[in-house]
Amino acid sequence: MSSGFSSVASNLARVRERIARASEHAGRRADEVTIVAVSKTFPAEAIRTAYEAGLRNFGENRVQEWEAKHPRVADLGATWHLIGHLQSNKARRAARLFSRVDSVDSLELARKLDASTAEQAKRLSVLIEVHLGDEATKTGVTETDLRPLAEAVVRLPRLNLLGLMAIPPFLDDAERLRPQFRKLRELRDALCKPLGRPLPVLSMGMSHDFEVAIEEGATEIRVGTALFGDRQAKV
To answer: Which residue ranges in the chain fall short of pLDDT 70?
Structure first.
Protein backbone atom coordinates (compact mmCIF):
# COMPACT_ATOMS: atom_id res chain seq x y z
CA MET A 1 0.00 0.00 0.00
CA SER A 2 1.33 3.43 -0.91
CA SER A 3 2.93 5.26 2.00
CA GLY A 4 1.54 8.52 0.67
CA PHE A 5 -2.01 7.32 1.34
CA SER A 6 -1.39 4.80 4.10
CA SER A 7 -4.17 6.34 6.21
CA VAL A 8 -6.90 5.34 3.73
CA ALA A 9 -7.41 1.89 5.25
CA SER A 10 -7.78 3.25 8.79
CA ASN A 11 -10.01 6.08 7.53
CA LEU A 12 -12.18 3.52 5.74
CA ALA A 13 -12.52 1.52 8.95
CA ARG A 14 -13.79 4.63 10.74
CA VAL A 15 -16.24 5.41 7.92
CA ARG A 16 -17.58 1.86 8.10
CA GLU A 17 -18.02 2.19 11.87
CA ARG A 18 -20.06 5.35 11.30
CA ILE A 19 -22.15 3.57 8.66
CA ALA A 20 -22.76 0.66 11.02
CA ARG A 21 -23.95 2.94 13.83
CA ALA A 22 -26.23 4.96 11.55
CA SER A 23 -27.64 1.81 9.96
CA GLU A 24 -28.35 0.22 13.33
CA HIS A 25 -30.07 3.40 14.49
CA ALA A 26 -32.26 3.31 11.38
CA GLY A 27 -33.03 -0.40 11.65
CA ARG A 28 -31.09 -1.14 8.48
CA ARG A 29 -28.14 -3.36 7.59
CA ALA A 30 -24.79 -1.69 7.01
CA ASP A 31 -24.29 -3.74 3.85
CA GLU A 32 -27.27 -1.94 2.28
CA VAL A 33 -25.07 1.16 1.94
CA THR A 34 -22.43 1.45 -0.80
CA ILE A 35 -19.48 3.80 -0.38
CA VAL A 36 -18.59 5.78 -3.48
CA ALA A 37 -15.07 7.06 -2.85
CA VAL A 38 -14.89 10.60 -4.24
CA SER A 39 -11.44 10.63 -5.79
CA LYS A 40 -11.68 13.96 -7.64
CA THR A 41 -8.42 15.98 -7.41
CA PHE A 42 -6.60 12.98 -5.92
CA PRO A 43 -4.05 11.07 -8.00
CA ALA A 44 -4.44 7.58 -9.41
CA GLU A 45 -2.17 6.39 -6.59
CA ALA A 46 -4.89 7.25 -4.08
CA ILE A 47 -7.48 5.30 -6.06
CA ARG A 48 -5.24 2.26 -6.19
CA THR A 49 -4.62 2.46 -2.43
CA ALA A 50 -8.35 2.71 -1.74
CA TYR A 51 -9.00 -0.24 -4.04
CA GLU A 52 -6.44 -2.29 -2.12
CA ALA A 53 -8.28 -1.33 1.08
CA GLY A 54 -11.49 -2.85 -0.32
CA LEU A 55 -13.34 -0.03 -2.10
CA ARG A 56 -14.85 -0.77 -5.50
CA ASN A 57 -16.81 2.39 -6.40
CA PHE A 58 -15.14 5.70 -7.25
CA GLY A 59 -16.60 9.09 -8.12
CA GLU A 60 -15.05 11.73 -10.35
CA ASN A 61 -16.32 15.21 -11.17
CA ARG A 62 -14.70 16.13 -14.47
CA VAL A 63 -14.30 14.21 -17.70
CA GLN A 64 -10.95 15.79 -18.53
CA GLU A 65 -9.44 14.96 -15.14
CA TRP A 66 -10.63 11.36 -15.39
CA GLU A 67 -9.23 10.97 -18.89
CA ALA A 68 -5.78 11.72 -17.47
CA LYS A 69 -6.10 9.32 -14.52
CA HIS A 70 -8.04 6.44 -16.01
CA PRO A 71 -5.18 4.77 -17.94
CA ARG A 72 -3.26 4.36 -14.66
CA VAL A 73 -6.10 2.46 -12.95
CA ALA A 74 -7.86 0.83 -15.92
CA ASP A 75 -6.72 -2.59 -14.72
CA LEU A 76 -8.80 -2.33 -11.54
CA GLY A 77 -12.18 -4.05 -11.42
CA ALA A 78 -13.99 -0.97 -10.16
CA THR A 79 -17.17 0.92 -11.01
CA TRP A 80 -16.39 4.45 -12.16
CA HIS A 81 -19.07 7.06 -11.41
CA LEU A 82 -19.34 10.51 -12.95
CA ILE A 83 -20.84 12.55 -10.13
CA GLY A 84 -20.20 16.08 -11.39
CA HIS A 85 -22.21 18.19 -13.80
CA LEU A 86 -21.82 16.92 -17.36
CA GLN A 87 -22.06 19.22 -20.34
CA SER A 88 -23.89 17.58 -23.19
CA ASN A 89 -20.97 18.19 -25.57
CA LYS A 90 -18.89 15.82 -23.41
CA ALA A 91 -21.49 13.04 -23.32
CA ARG A 92 -19.66 10.86 -25.83
CA ARG A 93 -16.42 10.93 -23.84
CA ALA A 94 -18.27 10.31 -20.58
CA ALA A 95 -20.16 7.33 -21.99
CA ARG A 96 -16.85 5.78 -23.04
CA LEU A 97 -14.96 6.44 -19.80
CA PHE A 98 -17.48 5.87 -17.01
CA SER A 99 -19.45 2.88 -15.79
CA ARG A 100 -22.23 5.15 -14.56
CA VAL A 101 -23.35 8.76 -14.89
CA ASP A 102 -24.98 9.87 -11.65
CA SER A 103 -25.75 13.47 -12.67
CA VAL A 104 -28.24 13.38 -15.55
CA ASP A 105 -30.24 16.61 -15.33
CA SER A 106 -31.80 17.17 -18.75
CA LEU A 107 -33.41 15.27 -21.60
CA GLU A 108 -30.85 16.69 -24.03
CA LEU A 109 -28.02 15.16 -21.99
CA ALA A 110 -29.87 11.85 -21.60
CA ARG A 111 -30.44 11.59 -25.35
CA LYS A 112 -26.79 12.30 -26.11
CA LEU A 113 -25.65 9.71 -23.58
CA ASP A 114 -28.06 7.20 -25.13
CA ALA A 115 -26.76 7.88 -28.63
CA SER A 116 -23.14 7.75 -27.50
CA THR A 117 -23.70 4.48 -25.66
CA ALA A 118 -25.33 2.97 -28.73
CA GLU A 119 -22.11 3.62 -30.65
CA GLN A 120 -20.29 1.42 -28.13
CA ALA A 121 -22.93 -1.35 -28.16
CA LYS A 122 -23.50 -1.25 -24.40
CA ARG A 123 -25.98 0.06 -21.84
CA LEU A 124 -25.15 2.83 -19.41
CA SER A 125 -26.59 3.03 -15.91
CA VAL A 126 -27.61 6.52 -14.81
CA LEU A 127 -29.09 8.48 -11.94
CA ILE A 128 -31.12 11.66 -12.25
CA GLU A 129 -29.74 14.54 -10.21
CA VAL A 130 -32.44 16.50 -8.38
CA HIS A 131 -31.93 20.10 -7.31
CA LEU A 132 -33.05 20.36 -3.69
CA GLY A 133 -32.78 23.72 -1.96
CA ASP A 134 -32.34 27.26 -3.20
CA GLU A 135 -28.66 27.34 -4.20
CA ALA A 136 -28.40 28.95 -7.61
CA THR A 137 -24.99 27.38 -8.22
CA LYS A 138 -26.23 23.80 -7.87
CA THR A 139 -27.33 21.78 -10.87
CA GLY A 140 -30.09 19.22 -11.14
CA VAL A 141 -33.65 18.91 -12.34
CA THR A 142 -36.43 20.59 -10.38
CA GLU A 143 -39.04 18.60 -8.52
CA THR A 144 -41.63 19.73 -11.08
CA ASP A 145 -39.59 18.49 -14.04
CA LEU A 146 -38.41 15.25 -12.43
CA ARG A 147 -41.25 12.96 -13.47
CA PRO A 148 -41.33 14.03 -17.15
CA LEU A 149 -37.56 13.59 -17.35
CA ALA A 150 -37.66 10.19 -15.65
CA GLU A 151 -40.43 8.99 -17.96
CA ALA A 152 -38.39 10.07 -20.97
CA VAL A 153 -35.17 8.49 -19.70
CA VAL A 154 -36.72 5.05 -19.14
CA ARG A 155 -37.83 5.06 -22.78
CA LEU A 156 -34.25 5.47 -24.01
CA PRO A 157 -33.07 1.97 -24.95
CA ARG A 158 -29.42 2.27 -23.95
CA LEU A 159 -29.88 3.94 -20.56
CA ASN A 160 -30.72 2.09 -17.36
CA LEU A 161 -32.25 4.45 -14.81
CA LEU A 162 -31.35 3.21 -11.32
CA GLY A 163 -32.52 6.06 -9.10
CA LEU A 164 -31.89 9.59 -7.91
CA MET A 165 -28.99 11.68 -6.66
CA ALA A 166 -28.85 15.02 -4.83
CA ILE A 167 -26.20 17.35 -3.43
CA PRO A 168 -27.75 19.42 -0.64
CA PRO A 169 -25.97 22.54 0.64
CA PHE A 170 -23.07 22.18 3.06
CA LEU A 171 -24.30 22.86 6.59
CA ASP A 172 -22.37 22.40 9.82
CA ASP A 173 -25.49 20.97 11.42
CA ALA A 174 -26.25 17.88 9.34
CA GLU A 175 -29.59 17.46 11.08
CA ARG A 176 -30.86 20.51 9.19
CA LEU A 177 -30.45 18.52 5.96
CA ARG A 178 -32.79 15.76 7.05
CA PRO A 179 -35.84 17.28 5.29
CA GLN A 180 -33.97 17.36 1.98
CA PHE A 181 -32.79 13.76 2.28
CA ARG A 182 -36.32 12.72 3.18
CA LYS A 183 -37.69 14.66 0.21
CA LEU A 184 -35.41 12.82 -2.21
CA ARG A 185 -36.59 9.48 -0.84
CA GLU A 186 -40.22 10.55 -1.17
CA LEU A 187 -39.65 11.71 -4.73
CA ARG A 188 -38.04 8.38 -5.58
CA ASP A 189 -40.88 6.42 -3.99
CA ALA A 190 -43.49 8.47 -5.84
CA LEU A 191 -41.80 7.77 -9.19
CA CYS A 192 -41.75 4.00 -8.98
CA LYS A 193 -45.45 3.44 -9.68
CA PRO A 194 -45.82 5.68 -12.76
CA LEU A 195 -42.55 4.32 -14.15
CA GLY A 196 -43.64 0.75 -13.45
CA ARG A 197 -40.22 -0.19 -12.14
CA PRO A 198 -38.15 0.00 -8.95
CA LEU A 199 -35.53 2.69 -8.50
CA PRO A 200 -33.19 1.04 -6.01
CA VAL A 201 -30.51 3.72 -5.75
CA LEU A 202 -30.63 6.84 -3.58
CA SER A 203 -27.26 8.59 -3.77
CA MET A 204 -27.13 11.19 -1.02
CA GLY A 205 -24.92 12.09 1.89
CA MET A 206 -21.23 13.01 2.05
CA SER A 207 -18.41 12.88 4.59
CA HIS A 208 -19.97 15.33 7.04
CA ASP A 209 -23.63 14.32 6.83
CA PHE A 210 -23.98 10.74 5.61
CA GLU A 211 -25.35 9.40 8.91
CA VAL A 212 -28.51 11.47 8.49
CA ALA A 213 -28.73 10.44 4.83
CA ILE A 214 -28.52 6.77 5.80
CA GLU A 215 -31.26 7.24 8.37
CA GLU A 216 -33.42 8.69 5.59
CA GLY A 217 -32.79 5.85 3.16
CA ALA A 218 -29.52 6.48 1.31
CA THR A 219 -28.23 3.40 -0.51
CA GLU A 220 -25.06 5.14 -1.69
CA ILE A 221 -22.98 7.77 0.06
CA ARG A 222 -20.25 9.83 -1.59
CA VAL A 223 -17.22 10.05 0.69
CA GLY A 224 -14.03 11.92 -0.15
CA THR A 225 -12.49 13.93 2.67
CA ALA A 226 -13.22 11.30 5.32
CA LEU A 227 -11.23 8.78 3.25
CA PHE A 228 -8.48 10.73 1.52
CA GLY A 229 -8.12 13.86 3.65
CA ASP A 230 -8.26 17.45 2.44
CA ARG A 231 -8.67 18.00 -1.26
CA GLN A 232 -5.60 18.42 -3.40
CA ALA A 233 -5.38 21.27 -5.87
CA LYS A 234 -4.18 19.18 -8.81
CA VAL A 235 -4.32 15.61 -10.08
So the answer is: 1-4, 134-137, 232-235
Domains of the chain with CATH codes:
3-228 (3.20.20.10)
167-203 burial: b if 16+ Cβ within 10 Å, else e? bbeeeeebeebbebbebbbebbeebeeeeeeebebbb
Q: Is the pTM of this model over 0.90?
A: yes
CA 110/CA 132 separation, integer angstroms: 20
